[in-house]
Structures are given as C-alpha cells and as structure tokens.
Amino acid sequence: MSQFRLVKRDNTTTMQHMMVRVIAILIAFGISSLLLVFTKSSPLQAFYNLLVEPFQYRSGPIEIVKLTTSLSVISLGIAFAFKMKFWNIGAEGQILLGAIGAMFVARSFPTLSSSILLPFMLLGSFVFGALWGLLPAFFKAKFGTNETLFTLMMNYIALNIVKTLESGPWKDPKSFQNTIAALPDNARIPSIFTEIPWSLLNAGFIIAIILTIFSYYYINHTKSGYELSVVGESESTARYAGMNVFAIVIRTMIISAGVCGIAGFIQVAGNNSTLSSGVAGGLGFTAIITTWLSKLNMFMIPVVSFFFAIIAIGKDGLVTIGVPSAAAEAIQGIILFCILGCEFFLRYKIGFEKNSDEKVSKVRSAS
Amino acid sequence: MKFLINDFIPYFLLAVGYGIPILYGTLGGILAEKAGNINLGIEGMMLMGAAAGFLVSLSTENVIYGLLAAIVAGGFGALIYAFLTVSLKANQIVTGLSLTIFGAGITRFLLNLNKEVVRIPNSVQKYLKPVLSDVMGIGGLDDSIFKIFDLSLLVYLAFLIAIVLHFYLNHTRYGLNLRAVGENLAAADAAGINVNLYKYVHVVLGGALCGLGGAYLSMYYIPIKTEDVVHGNGWIAVALVIFVSWKPLRAIVGSLLFGSLALLGKSLQTGVSMSPYLLDMLPFIVTILVLIITSVKMSKENAQPKSCGVNFDREER
What is the ipTM of this complex? Predict the structure, then answer.
C-alpha cells in the first residue's frame, strides 16, 4: 500500500513562486471556460474581450491606469493592516470617508487656488479615512474586539452617511436627483500631459507611485515598520520584547485607513468629478484580493492591481457577445480560489512512498 | 388583548420574516466555527443558495427541487471553502472573502443570463406561504391570538434546526467531538477523532443551511428576480454568531431581535422626518455595539472556539 505524505518546504525560489501563480491562473481560466458554457459564446472570444480589447479603444488604457491607481493606493493601505494581521476589510468605508473629507475641504474653501487647495484636500481625506479606521483599531487594541466585522459594519454606515449627504445637506439645488454638485476646476487633480487622449489622465497615479515607495520604505526600513511586522507574527513576542502593542496597532491603522482615504480623494477629485455613493463601488473589496495576491509586497501591488484593472475595465466588453458582465467577478473569484489553493504547493511538497513503517515519525495525511 | 392582536402580533410576524434568513446564516456560521473554521463566505453561500433555489424552482415549478438546489449550492460553496482551508490549508479569512466575491459574481452571472423579469410561480410559493389561516378556513385566524403561529414552513424548519443543533452539539458524542475539534485540534487528533472529516462535514452542512436561508429570501420573501436579494444579511449573520455566543437556541432570540430592529428602522422612516439613510444604519450600529460589548465582557465559557482561524497541521505543535 503506498501512501503519500506532506513535507514542509523550507525555502522556495522566486521562480517557483512565479510558476505556481501562472499555473494557478491558467487553471482558473480553464475552470472559467466551463462557466462560459452556459452562454453561447466561445471562451476564447470572452477572454479576448476581457483581457485584450480594453487596450484597443482610445480611452481604454487611460481607464486602466486610473483604476490601477485607485486599486494600488487602497491595496497599499490594506497591506499595512494585513502585515499586522489586522483584518481591515473596511477599506470601502475608509475610501468613502476620505472622499467626504476631500469634499468637505473643497466645499469649505472654494476660492483657494488649486496649489493650496489640493494638498489640503489630500490631508482632509487622510484624516477622515484615518478616523474611520481609528475606531475599530482602538477597540481591537483595547478589548480584542473582532476587527473583521467591526470594519465591515463601518462600511455600511459610511455608505449611508454619503447617501444622507447626497439627499440632504450637500444636495445640488439645481439637480432633481440626489446628486452633489461637481467640483470646480481648482479642486480637480490636473493632468500632467497636454496632448489628447493622455491629457484626460489626471496626475493621481503620481500619488500612487510616491505612496508605493513610501510604503516599501516604511515597512522594510523603519523601526515602526519592523514593529508592526512583529505584532503581526506574534503579539506576545512583541509584548515580551517590550513593544507598546496598543500604540503600534493604533499607529498602523491610522496609516492604513488614512491611505485608503487618500484613494477617496483621488476618486472624487480625479477619476470622478464629485462625491457619490458609488465612489468606492466595491474597490475596497477588490483591493483585499489584490493585497493578498501580492503577498504584501509593496512593489507587486501595482502589478496585481493592473491585472485586476484590466479585468474590471474589460468586463463591459463581455456584454457585446452576450455574456453578463458579472462573469468577470465570478472569474476573479475563481482566480483567487486557484491561487489560494496552489499556494499550498509552495509550502508543502507531496512525497509518495511505499509502506512507510520505518517512517512512522513522518507526517502522513489520510485525506 | 386588542393591542396584542392588532399591534404586537403583526409586528412579531414581520420581525420573524426579517430575522429568519439571518437565523439560517447564523446557524450555518455556528456549525463552521464549532469546527474551528471562520467562514466569512456566509453572504456568498446565501447568494448562491438564493440563485439556485430561484432558478431551479422557476424552471421545474417544484418547491422541493428548488430547496434541494439551494442546499446543494450552499453546500457546494462551503465545499470549495473547506477544500481550500482544510485540505490545502489556505488562510480562512481570505478564502471566506473570496467565497463571498465568487458567490456574488456567479449569482449575478446566472441571473443575468436571461434578461426577463421573472417571479416564482404560485404553484411553488403556495407551499412556502403561511398555511395555518387556510387550514382554518378563510380569515379564520384574523382576530385570534393563534395568528402568531401563522408562519411559513421554512420558519418552523429554521426553529427546528436550531433546536436539533442544540441537542446535537450538547448531548451527542458527535457534538462533543466536534467541540473538541473546535477547541483543540491537536488534542482531538490525539484522541483519535478524524479532524479533517469533522471539519469538512460541518462546514458543508453549515453552507447548506446558508443556502436554505438564501432560498427563503429568493423563493418566498422576495419571489421576484433580484440580483442582491441577500443584501448584507449574511454579514449580519457572521456578527450574530458572536452575539449569540455560538449557541443555536440563543440564535433564535438573536435573529428575532435583529429582525425587529431592522423593522423598527423601516417603520420609523414613515413617522419621523429625517433622512431614511440614517435609520438604515441602525442594524449595523447595533452589530458594532454588540461586538464591543461581547468583547469587553468576554467570559471563558462564551468565547469563540479556540482553534478558529488556525488550520490543522500535525507537524506544527
């Protein structure tokens, strides 16, 4: 009787990591094809529309860069919390609050010139987002309150705050619908390009690049970054080493939620023209995936975000061949399942062996 | 008495209507967490169950097939989760979230394959509607205190499952073993319990319950094609698992409490001149308060099963 056993791998090469990811994505596309059998279109055509077509029309690449920007910024924010094993799934709400903060500043000082107003809007979005993250962080650090659910519930509250603002205090008096008036030009992130179509691209992506470098430096080369990693590995180790866990949790969540808030600023003042309840639009949840897939490596985050941005932009192209655009979300889910599953093979290797009497001490898995 | 019949009972019945899907989700969540697995995919499994129940009962016009499809769909979602977390030892939180994303995507995909606005036929619905009034003759219960029992069969089924689960967890050997798995994986394994099997079975059963909760929504409560018929109920269920401290009987009370709370928000909207959206926040604010209160005064007895979030690995001890 032959049995298989699991052996832990000690170290894996970058090459192996890449290989496993690629294989996982291929498997995911295979499974996704089965899904497309429900429709009358061929899977190849669907993948073409999903992944290639967005690059072919004029504004496609711009939309992709915009989305990559927002997703990257949010993912960077989430990565801080995840590194600490603080499951912040409240990015959606933190984006909304950041957007409110930016909007609040812009509405309070409408006459300022943009070189002064925009930095203050950025600051406002950071502060509002951070405050939204501070609440769950405080209770987590103080009482061990479940942060996953706490941050999640904060999303729904944030959404309803935006809806309230839309329908009442900030409602555009000229509009019949519940919308907020568009921001004036001095409160919009300008473009750094002059020629069409790239002049349609706002400079938000520069914020994303700066934040990526900052995050990498903070996590890998500062004492605070080191401390939050230790708390993530083991809270008791951190305590034993004399670290102030409470302060570390609070500090990290201020950065995490604040950075998500900045994404709200980029959304209202750059990618959209005003605050609306759809300003986060599920980005906060997609970013949880991109964060995880990039293994909390700050430079991988933009890469993974780019891939997901293509899928998100390309999904509209599915409708033309009779595939509901929601297929893109299902495919995202399948990709994620496959990558989560395949990571197993990076941590373990499976050895087959004949009757293993002499290796009783080794691990045998019955399942 | 008049107050009881005219005001309290209708209110109670509506609250039950709101609370039942949450109860199914909560019971499913309790089963998974008792086996040491936090499943954040409840929302996704409920959505999958809702879509499967809706589409199958629509095409077969058979209520049993519809409910079975919902159970299978919910169970299937849980099976993916169990395979990834139990066999492949993937992170439970991320896997659960992926399950919710996948469930929402696949549900909208399947429902949008056909653009028509469709609703569940009466031939299916009549089995799910409250039947007591009909049995007693038309309007036979209108001004009687017994009207309080006039509920959908799916409501009674949920109560029954909660009671059965209570006995299963507390008074059977399997239940005891399950709790051992949830509390201490290594000890359970050493005692000869097949840890992985227990995890698989209970996570999948939990998913099946979530699927039923979805079917309650899509086949009976909102029997017209709706993309997001679950609408956050699954997440409230995740929170309620903690609120009721992993006890199935308390889950009944908890879900009714949440049902009446959601209802309170809705009924206040008509009376008070404030933004309706502020009142929509109520259930979520209460959930947060509940989380805080339970964490502040967490007793050992009412704590989360200790191995929750930890994947079993014999080598690591």
Answer: 0.90
